[in-house]
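Reopening this one. Same input as before:
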Amino acid sequence: MGKRGSQTFVQSRLQFFVAVLLTLLLLYAASATAECPTVSKPGGLATQWPHQLELSEFERQRGPLKVRENPAFAAKVAEGGLLPVSQRLPSEPLILLPYHQCGRYGGALRGLSLALNSGTSEIMSWRQVNLVRLSDDLQTIVPNVARAWEWGEDQRSITIHLRKGHRWSDGYPFTADDVVFFIDDIIRHPAIHKKPPLVWTAGRESVKVRRIDETTVRFEFATPFPGFLMFLASSGSYLTPYAPRHVLAPLHIDHNPDADEEAKAFGFKDWVERFGVYWNKWKDELYDTEESLKVPTLDSHMLAVAPTNEERRYIANPYYFKLDSAGQQLPYIDTHHERFVAKELFLLEIVSGRVDQKSQNVGFGSYRQLKDNEDRGGYGLQLPTGGGRVYLAFNQTHKDPVLRGVFSDPRFLAAMSIAIDRQALNLLRAQGLAEITQGLPERTSFVTPAHRKHNIEFDPEKANRLLDEMGLKRSFSGVRLLPDGRPLVVNWAFSRQFAGTPELPRRIRDNWADVGVEVRLSEITTEESRTRAWANEMDINMEWDAPFEPNLTGDPYLFVPPYSSLGPLFGVPWKRWIDSDGEIGEEPPDWVKRLYALAEEWRTLQPGSPRYRAIGTEMVQINLDHMTIIGVLGLAPSPTVVSRRLKNVSKWTINHYNYARTYPFRPDQWFFAR
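Same output, byte for byte:
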């Protein structure tokens, strides 16, 4: 056979093998999807929970399920660097029914955030898990990391069952010890928390946890805490009640007597400062440095390389505990790519086709351009509720006693509220589609239409009368004077993440100038706004996501000063006084003490009960009486960009932080069509 004949023979054999390989791949794909119950076509499969069930229940109805490997891990398994998937999964993995079809592996999910720790919660929601999750009906709590649970009779305890054989992303076993470590060695440790954070307390006492066995823990509360799971499933979904003990214990003084000396050798002040590099209540902050690579996760994706100020990349977690209904290990998508881009560039990035899913910080002002460029960008546009909301609060604990007196006067706050032309701002921000409402919780059983209309009319004349009544006289320039004769000047340092656009505070500035209040605007970063807010150095703060009833049920402190655990509105000295039992900070006024007392009682009550509704109503009235939060705009449609290649994406009913953004809609079963 000649050289050319030999080449022809080799080529033909290669073509044959390629054809066989393609056939096998097609057969594999067909077998993986032929027997694939989905939400749209369940094929008679009954599920105890919406869209999911445990492996044992699946196999009881359908017979043995063959577990299938993600091809991205196949080479590493073949080399012996990774266990086969059947050995990586828990003995009882969770089975998800995909919305429409069992997916294909591969691809990179591309998204945008503003910066490290700024506007990142949407991309966090792509990968996050917690003990439990809200289903997409936004009401039903379903198993997740936890396999099951039982409440104690008086709801003073709840027993949580974990999954036997569950592993962290580094392959180390995840057990009850990781939950106990979180509560006992982090939340209850006085060097890390002088007092446990309020969300991890009941009856002003810390939540306690008892190890029953390797996969069972019991949370115990000083008072009934029926909203505990709802807290974990909604606004607390980003705050996981477990931590990797095997990584963190060597850094902890109670587990390593040399931890302090070792920390100082690495340049830290003490072991607590070093520990904070590897654990933070806001778990996204763990992924800000190269050290992040040492911290394993239970999430669907884990950090792939050291983050930079330009981007972060995540890869699929080979030990993720979920399968689809064809036995394929989730997630389908191999990588998440988060880029940090200035907000004014979001629109360009999206319409240029460089983004696969985006809603956070897009804003309704971009809707028309987004809609007109769907074909160019290769995406579709959804309009769930959840965007447009704008709130502001004057600092009622201002360091300047004169300004504090003015900013705490309900007449001043009412005047500032009714001096705002909300209709004009609605057109600017949301093309007139936002609700106009006072700063109150959303979609609750106890907030009335009358509550929502409190001091929201545009009435500059009445605003002037209220300011005159306070004795805030006008100078020759028209600017009102404080009681000590200084001009009444409000320094408003705003973050674009919460103002949406600089034009919004400019319009409000002009409204307030008309009633004699001068405003000096400056734009700062979200990180700086939070730092200055915690230092009690701001005149106005804006970081408040009005809670929905499920969020408030588990965390009523969202409607109590300082109103936010990230960027407080006001009341930091009051919170320090309460947290320290009066040792530091400033004693709050009686109305603030009453709010805290009501919040504590409310957490003990069954949602919907008469006393529950009565407390909700009283909390609303106290906040309205003191005009704590001025609502500028309420709920509006939230433009949500979804790549046309991205499949198994349901129709969003809401897109909001307090529902953990994409989390209820199961992004771990999204996949890309070829």
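So the earlier flakiness isn't reproducible anymore. For the record, The radius of gyration is 27 Å.
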